[in-house]
Amino acid sequence: MRVLLKITDIIDVEVLQRIQDSFSDATGLAAVTVDYKGNPITEYSNFSEYCNCVRKDSNNRDCCYQSDAHGGIESARSGKPSIYICHGGLVDLAVPIMVKGNYLGAIMAGQVKIDEAEMKRLPFGTSHELIDFSKNPEIKELYDKTLKTTLTQVRAAADLLYTIANYLVEKQMIHIIQEELHNKNLELMEEVKLRSEVEASLKEADLKALQAQINPHFLFNVLNTIGRLALLEGADKTQEMIYAFSDMMRYTLKKEKNNVVTLKEEMEHVQNYLSIQKMRLGNRLNYLVEVDEMAEDILCPFMTVQPFVENAIIHAIEPNAKGGEVRITAEILKEIVILKIADDGKGIPNDRIHKILDGTYEADGREKNTGIGINNANKRLMYYYGVDYGVEIKSELEKGTEITIKIPRKSLAGRGL
Questions:
Q1: Class of domain 7-179
Q2: Distances (CA, A) of 293 to 56, 138, 267, 274, 333
Q3: Radius of gyration of the CA atoms of the chain, in A
Q4: Sheet (strand 336-343) strand order
Q5: Do residues 333 and 373 lie in contact, with contact meaning Cβ atoms separated by under 8 Å?
Q6: DSSP strand E in 245-384: where?
Q7: Distance CA 23, CA 65 (A)
Q8: Domain-wise residue ranges, the chain
Q9: Which of 90, 134, 160, 290 is the most buried (most CB within 10 A)?
Q10: CB-based burial of residue 221 (10 Å sphere; 0-12 exposed, 13-18 middle, 19+ buried)?
Q11: What span, in angstroms and rounded, lies between the C-alpha atoms of 165 and 96?
């Protein structure tokens, strides 16, 4: 998205004010700098008594503003200083401040008289008639006292301001370009660092650790539940639980040499995990899994969804005596698959979300293991698809958490898989 520059982004107002004051002291001309809307961004320098008196009348003041606006527009059109006669009969000038052809504002100066013959060579800066001050001795006296100079000197003053304005703009633009290059270098270094970290984590030992990262606490609960079921009831539920657990182990082990699965395979793994948790937690856990059939054959990194579902069970369902609900959905939006894992738990503080995603969150026991799983999944997604395809976590305290994972429909071939 293109960011519009403001004049204050390009020129230091304090420096400009000092230059403007010095210019007015040296030339006797009044001066002020305005933005592209005509709003002053500096204080007036050497404003004439005549103009102050004229502007006491609101109608005359509006005419003055229109005259200034006209001068600024004319200078913007030509890209050069504009010299004109205001409705008060004085000579003014407008010096445009331009960046790459875009008009950001202008330095307005003038409020002087010149020879009548030279005045006739200048355009009017307004459609309003000149002020008739013949019946107002006070205004006529102030007009007569207004500084008189030559058109040559006015043009020289305009050229001086134009040179100064261009210098200030060019100097700052060089600084902005250098800063942009510096930021791009930092982004490139960060991307190289990320790639290096992910590639290191995908070495055989790290990958096996990732594939075997089903929580020890979860394994203990599974075995304990199987034992209780075998003792207290028939074999049906026990058999169902064992089959689900066996499928999970088979899914984990068979991917030792292949890091890519279809979304259908990943969701079946999640279904097995949830069915086991359902048997353990009973009515405390409700879950819903909805996957667009068109998305089932899309490839994704192994263990993309399960760490987030596990996190929802541990932090949203287990601590709540009444339990809760986990919803997993997958839908295609144009060329992107949107995966969402949502719960209605107690939520996650914003500061903890940032730490979980960047891998700096530390806690005791299984919380720490879950955080590692989420951080690994996030890093792998950014490695395979780019930094625009990481994990987004939205959470509201006491209302729940929603994880969004974006996966492009393009093939994962060529990413070291």
A1: alpha beta
A2: 74, 86, 12, 20, 13
A3: 36
A4: 285-291, 324-333, 336-343, 400-408, 391-396
A5: no
A6: 260-262, 285-291, 299-301, 324-333, 336-343
A7: 22
A8: 7-179, 203-408
A9: 90
A10: middle
A11: 8
Regarding the domain delimited by 203-408, which CATH topology (the fold level of the hierarchy) does it fall under?
A: Heat Shock Protein 90 (3.30.565)
Whose structure tokens read 């790459």? 100
Q: Provide the residue-wise pLDDT of the chain in tens; the chain has 417 residues.
A: 344 677 787 788 888 899 889 989 988 899 998 888 778 889 989 888 888 888 887 777 778 877 777 888 888 888 889 899 888 889 999 999 888 778 888 899 988 999 888 888 888 766 667 777 777 888 888 888 888 999 999 999 999 998 888 888 887 777 777 888 888 888 888 777 777 766 666 555 455 555 555 555 565 566 567 656 666 666 667 767 766 777 777 777 666 556 788 899 999 999 999 998 998 889 999 999 999 988 888 888 888 898 899 989 998 999 998 999 999 999 998 888 999 999 999 998 888 888 887 777 766 554 544 556 777 778 888 888 887 887 899 999 989 999 999 988 875 544 444
Q: Which amino acid is at 259?
A: N
Would you say 330 and 295 are in contact if contact means Cβ atoms under 8 Å apart? yes
Token digits of residue 271: 């279904």
Among candidates 77, 15, 10, 8, which has minimal Cα distance to 39?
8
Instruction: Pull the structure tokens for residue 272.
Output: 């097995």
Q: Report which DSSP code applies to 345.
A: S
Which amino acid, one-letter code, is at 225? T
d(CA 374, CA 289): 20
- SS3 of residue 1 by DSSP: coil
Backbone CA torsion sign across 114, 115, 116, 122 = negative
Q: CA-CA distance, 243 to 160, in Å (whole number)?
A: 86
